[in-house]
Specification:
Blueprint (H helix, E strand, L loop, with lengths): L1 H6 L2 H8 L2 H25 L4 H12 L7 H4 L6 H24 L10 H27 L1 H25 L1 H11 L4 H18 L5 H12 L3 H11 L7 H31 L2
Amino acid sequence: MFSIGLRTSSSELVGILRNRALLARTLLANCFVIPAIGLVLAHIFPLTADARIGIVLLAAIPGTPIALQFTRMAETRLAFAAAVTFVLSMVSIAMTPLAIETMPETMERNHQPLFFLIASVALYIAIPLCAGVLVARQAPKPASRLVLPLGILATVVFAFLMWETRLMRREAFYTIRGRGTVLAMFLLLAASMLIGWLIGGPDGETRRILATSTGMRSVVVVLYIARYCFPSTNVFMIPLVYLSLMVPTNLVFHLALKGWHKLRPANGI
């Protein structure tokens, strides 16, 4: 977020929020359409109670900075990528307690996930983004030199974290597989990405950003909800497996789009 702030301005970020039609479509998709799809999938497949809870939570809670690992590569819509991440993270603050209230009465009431979410939005999104914008305004030349090394650092750290969690995610996959659980999660991911693509309008960069930002649900928040509200269950394994699905799917998606755009001029399409 700090490196994105170095490459954007406050006027660009505010300008994105003034596109009311696009903002309304994004909120409608993430707050109503995708949660409804999650509920349908939870009833269609013969899921365990833990899997049903995890999938419904994933569908209901949008916004994750992980999406920026892919959307920050946008050449012309970087400010939009940052704004979407911020907006959806703010929306998740409202969606989290609503999602928790729909869960079974057997869960343990705990407000810590909401406190964690508010702190995360400030610490990992709002503050570094604003700091980057401020540094770029006050010292544009040093800021431009920081963009590339920070981007490389972000990629290295992300790859390291994915590697470090591989055994945990593999164990979660083998534990929850069966009853169509993995298929239900993949359908949720594919449907969310398709909806994000369709609401993006005519601009290809906007569609690409919304497909990823909408498809990538807030796995970290669901993990905290599982920890504090559903202890001694396997609910926490559902977002771990979803993480294993959404990262490679979006990697293939962005690589395919990049290859397609490179081939278009050569093919005269």
